[in-house]
Amino acid sequence: MKEAQGKTIYLKDYLPPSYVIDETHLIFKLFEDKTLVRSRLLMRRNPAVGQQGLAELVLNGRDLELEKVILDGEVLDSQHYTVSDDTLVIPTVPDSFILECETTIKPQENTSLEGLYKSRVMFCTQCEAEGFRKITYYLDRPDVLSIFTTRIEADKTLYPVLLSNGNNLASGDLEDGRHFVTWEDPFRKASYLFALVAGKLKSVEDSYITCSGRKIQLQIFVEEKDLDKCDFAITSLKKAMKWDEDVYGREYDLDIFMIVAVDDFNMGAMENKGLNIFNSSCVLANPDTSTDQAFQRIEAIVAHEYFHNWSGNRVTCRDWFQLSLKEGFTVYRDSEFSADMGSRAVKRIEDVSFLRTVQFAEDNGPMAHSVRPESYMEISNFYTVTVYEKGAEVVRMQANLLGPEKFRQATDLYFQRFDGMAVTTEDFVQVMEEVSGLDLVQFRRWYSQAGTPRLDVSGKYDSQLNTFSLTISQSCLPTPSQAVKDPFYIPLRMALLDPQGKPISLCLELNEKESGDNDVSDELVLHFSEAEQTFVFKNVIEQPVPVLSRGFSAPVKLHYPYARDELMLLIQHEQDGFARWEASQQLALQILDELLLLHQQGKALAVDERITAAYASVLEAAVSDSSLDKAMLSNLLLLPSEAYLAELAEEVDVDGIHFVREFLRRHLAAELETKLLTVYEDCRNTVPYLFSAEEIARRSLQNTVLNYLACLDKPECWELIEKQFKTANNMTDSSAAIRALVNNPSEQSKALRDELIAGFYETWQHENLVVDQWFSMQSAVSAPDNLGQIVSLMEHPAFDIRNPNKVRSVIGAFCHNNAVGFHQLDGSGYDFLADQVITLNTLNPQIASRLLTPLTRWKKFSTQRQEIMKAALNRIKETPDLSRDVFEVVSKSLQ
Ligand code: B3K
Ligand code: ZN
Asked: What's the mean pLDDT in 691-711?
């Protein structure tokens, strides 16, 4: 193990920088074998630290060949500085000075996709979090803000387009067929927001007039073949710009906003100032090649990156422990934007499903950390669902506590007070407190304590006193380095329904300490903050049914012993879309649990037909009332996913979960066949594709129903599927036809699936992003012997282990989403993943480390599986030259 590999960085050790960089001037000379980087930094001692700071200058740098260091015009002799793997140290510098460095880097050999690298024919950068240090020596930390100018020189034929942040200052021709462009970004920014792109790119252009009447030029740069897939992203960008003006009063600042699509990219996109770089899968779309889900994802990600211009770029993080300051807040902002663009209730359902499946599992695993982590070895490992999605829930709770007006006042103050600064989550909460007058002392535990709180709730109706008492207790399991948790403050937006499903006027008996809003209304927020509390409602004349968390008002696990008839009542009558859906999930969960127990005991499976009745009424409503939101209805028909069932289980019975869930799907399909067919016919439509909330909802319901019909194993249903595939005028419908067949083991289903999959490739082999979908459909096939298929997909000419999208669509889709295939008892899936992680460890540590997640969850499985999973982890751990990324995850998960 290298020394740097196991080094832990702690939040408590944070020190402000000893030096600041007022100006950063960069010159890049791009060549086919190397790039020369010359930096000129105008630096001085940090006045906020004064002489107390370190006198020596320590710059970060990695994988750089240092050619020359010049201090105030004098070339430094090598005895006046020291270079290590990670730093350049100059022991003595004046209080104010100009430092120039010349370095050589090899973007062509950079497979980590961090720093400056080559993606196919173009140069591009990814600097967050610590990639800038792979470009030049620098104070590569988010609290060092500088004005950047960047000159790029390159061959004019190969790289006619040269881009960086800010405004184009100058351009011109050079000798030998080369040219240059100089960019200046007038806004001070941290190095993680630096970007450079060079390539033979074409652009789609548009403009946007801001609320103050300024005209902003909008450009999306792509390879020529993708010019037909930019319109949607441009439209999304304009919607996001308008929304941020309307909802947050935020106007764009530069005169130009550029997006570049890149094929090789480690994540979704990056908010570099004025020059966002996107994974091509998160920006390129047209109806022929993209599903509704892909469109919605693009709309959300374009908005997310755009929103970062204020929540991230203008106001940034003091250190990387504060990452959720920008990410949690920006996810909250983008989810509200999406809610406003489409169906609010459905967006909430989707977000909560994701949170509960993925984030709750993270909270329960070896990498569990708080929204503001205390320590890390490799910061790239902390771009997590906890920092992003749970962080967004924590902002949402504050927004709800303050209410819309106060929250807007608070965000206005936050942006105004901290504009151009690097701040902390504490600064954010303080502003919320200052504006609202609320005491958020206990609330802050959401930032500092890891783990998902569990709430056990019981209800007691007293028909003599006409009271209903809710007793709630909270607990939270230990997480690494946090054995004991203090109670969280948990807001519960709740209601009580009478036996007819009507909300009751709530009158809460207040104790010595006020613990709830006292206004009489149908709904109130319980302020639950102690280990255990009882809330008593007066004037309740009949036994009520409680609704405990409308809109999922806090990220907790709620346990209430609902009787099934109570759930049926909520499914029929509850007015909050999320809570209604939640009741249907609870009903399905109870029934699936019961089936699993019967299956494990070797008994015959019998289904409680109340679920069939509930689904029947949803299907009837779909036909009888065209005003209902079909996306909501589609969600009401979805059984909890295998991944969520696994998350909820003490010990995951992989095959049992798959078996009973499929059994229930088939049972519902058989019982509801006629109704399903009616809804399918009702939803089928051959009008030209339209991306609208209503049309997306229609297709969603149609394809959910098709999924059930596919379970019936009937020739008529195969015909339907084949017909949908062949006549579809959009990717949503044609790929849904294939996906309807992935879980069906029957021979006819397999034969049809193979035929459609072959046809799909035939049609789309020239479209890189569609080929990714083609890969992932096959990786999702839930068959015990699917690993062989995965191995052969990796030999397909279109597969490339250096391309993260390909890795995700084959290896990721199999190991993360195909439990039955991955968790084979012979350990073949685990060995396969270990092999891939070991290969990727050298090529791309970030991707290697992310892929590892399913193995780290070994504690959730049977002892037999645990042993083989641990053996695979140990094999990875023994690999020489393990990257810091993989080392951190593998060592923490074996502790
Ligand atoms: N801020 C980037 C993520 C960078 C990830 C670095 N490993 C994208 C985003 O959250 O918008
Ligand atoms: Zn972000």
From this structure: 97
Beta bridge partners, 467, equal 462
Query: What letter would DSSP give residue 503?
Result: B
What's residue 548's pLDDT?
A: 98
Centre of ligand 2 to C-alpha 767, Å, is 28
Spatial separation of the C-alpha atoms in residues 60 and 130, rounded to whole Å = 9
Which pLDDT value is given to residue 686?
77
Q: Tell whether the model's pLDDT for residue 513 goes beyond 80.
A: no
Confidence of residue 3 (pLDDT cuts 50, 70, 90): very low
CB 874: neighbour CB atoms within 10 A?
12
Task: Return the closest-CA partner of residue 494 out of 454, 545, 568.
Answer: 545
Is there a contact between 691 and 700 (Cβ–Cβ < 8 Å)? no
Q: Helix or strand or coil: residue 550?
A: coil
Query: Are 608 and 592 spatial neighbours (Cβ–Cβ below 8 Å)?
Result: no
Give the C-alpha distances (Å, rounded to integers) separating 425 from 321, 414, 431, 442: 9, 11, 10, 14
How far apart are the CA of 305 and the centre of ligand 1, in A? 9
How many whole angstroms separate alpha carbon 624 and alpha carbon 739?
Answer: 28
Nearest-angstrom CA–CA distance, 77 and 86: 20
Over residues 107-146, the pLDDT tens digits come to: 999 999 999 999 999 999 999 999 999 999 999 999 999 9
CA distance 83 to 140: 16
Check residue 874 and report its DSSP letter: H
Catalytic residues: 305
Report the separation in Å between the CA atom of 625 and the middle of ligand 1, taken as the mean of its atom positions: 43
Regarding the beta carbon of 267 and ligand 1, being less than 6 Å apart is answered yes
- Strand ranges, E, within 273-405: 275-279, 315-317, 375-376
Nearest CA to ligand 1 atom 10: 327
- Assigned token pair, 724: 């949908």
Using alpha carbons, select from 863, 866, 869 the residue that is nearest to residue 837: 869
Exposed e or buried b per residue across 327-359, where buried means at least 16 C-beta atoms within 10 angstroms of its C-beta: bbbbbbbbbbbbeebbbbbbbbbbbbbebbbbb
Torsion of the alpha carbons at 187, 190, 192 and 194, rounded to the nearest 10:
30
pTM over 0.90: yes
Say how many Å lie between the first and final Cα of the chain, rounded. Answer: 17
**609-659 residue pLDDT tens:** 999 999 999 999 999 999 999 999 999 999 999 999 999 999 999 999 999
Find tokens 């030096």 and name the residue: 19
CA 289 to CA 295: how far, in whole Å?
10
Q: Is the CB of 129 under 6 A from ligand 1?
A: yes
Token pair recorded at residue 692: 């609208």
Sign of the torsion formed by the C-alpha atoms of 400, 406, 412 and 417: negative
327 lines ligand 1 (CB under 6 A): yes
Number of helices and strands (H, E) in the chain?
30, 32
- CA–CA distance from 670 to each of 429, 663, 675 (Å)? 53, 11, 10
The tokens for 421 are 């600064």
Q: Is the dihedral of CA 873, 879, 884, 885 positive or negative?
A: negative
Q: Report how far residue 887's alpha carbon sits from residue 243's, in angstroms, rounded to the nearest whole number.
A: 42
Average pLDDT over residues 596-616: 98
Q: Write the DSSP string, 428-483.
A: HHHHHHHHH----TGGGHHHH--S--EEEEEEEEETTTTEEEEEEEEE---BTTB-
C-alpha span between 396 and 408 (Å, rounded): 13
CB-based contact 585:356 (threshold 8 Å)? no
Using the structure block, give the residue that is written with the tokens 């050790």: 13
Please, what sign has the CA dihedral across residues 37, 217, 330, 441? Answer: positive
Average pLDDT over residues 466-472: 98
| pLDDT tens-digit map of 60-78 | 999 999 999 999 999 999 9
Q: Which residues pair with 453 in a beta bridge?
A: none
Task: Name the closest-CA residue to atom 7, ligand 1.
Answer: 380
Residue 328, CB-side half-sphere exposure with 13 Å CA sphere: 30
Picking from 89, 114, 115, 116, the residue whose alpha carbon sits closest to that of residue 101 is: 89
